[in-house]
Amino acid sequence: MNIEIVLLAMVALFVGLRLYAVLGRRTGHEQQPVTRPEAVPGTETAPPLADAAPERSEGGGLVYEDGAAGGIRAIVAADNSFDVARFLDGAQGAYRMILEAFWKGDRQELAYLASGDVLAAFNQSIDEREAAGHKLDNRLVSIERAVIEDARLEGRDATITVRFDADIAAVTRNEAGEVVAGSLEDAVSTHDIWTFRRTLGSQDPNWALVDTDEA
Q1: Is residue 165 within 8 Å of residue 191, measured between CB atoms?
Q2: pLDDT (tens digit, 9 = 90+) per residue, 34-48?
Q3: Whole-model pTM?
Q4: Helix, strand, coil: what percent of the chain each, to 5?
Q5: How far is CA 89 from CA 130, 149, 201, 208, 213, in A?
Q6: Per-domain residue ranges of the chain
Q7: What is the DSSP letter of 200?
Q8: 62-214 maps to which CATH number?
Q9: Alpha-carbon distance values, 146 to 9, 36, 52, 163 (Å)
Q10: Which of 60, 131, 156, 173 is the 20 to 30 A CA-CA neighbour of 71?
């Protein structure tokens, strides 16, 4: 089992990654947002997502699956500032940042992205790696596909599940810099499902990563 799969399984045991810094940030590769009709000031109008085909990115990939349309409509109706494409773009940035911070052993960056037990778990894993004299030379080669598989609104709690299909090159080196496992020449295809949650209308604007799984 490679290190990134161990990482994702470990993250699934703990809740609390804070992603506001990247969720909502645009990177210059945005997908087209879900359009809304013009609203009269003081009113909120949900877009007709249930009657529309799933939005597609410029590359032709789905932004969300058909089964997520009803949940997205409910979330947009409850929070008209929510933008599907911006969220998904930010989620991809968060996916990259979290993995890269762990691979580099960047405790400061992880402290910015994680808290509580999940931060302790990251730090413990880094400690064990350093004690063994190992360094990770992993690289996220590409995110081939990111799509919202499910979206729900229960009360004021919004939950969005995103599937990431990515290629990762994983290498472990010893203190001398010699490769002891993996290869940068052969990227491994990974298929991860991350679920984010936020209470709409709360003072806390952060989305929390509450679950991860393998597709």
Answers
A1: yes
A2: 333 333 334 343 333
A3: 0.67
A4: 30, 30, 35
A5: 33, 15, 22, 16, 20
A6: 62-214
A7: T
A8: 3.10.450.240
A9: 19, 23, 20, 6
A10: 60
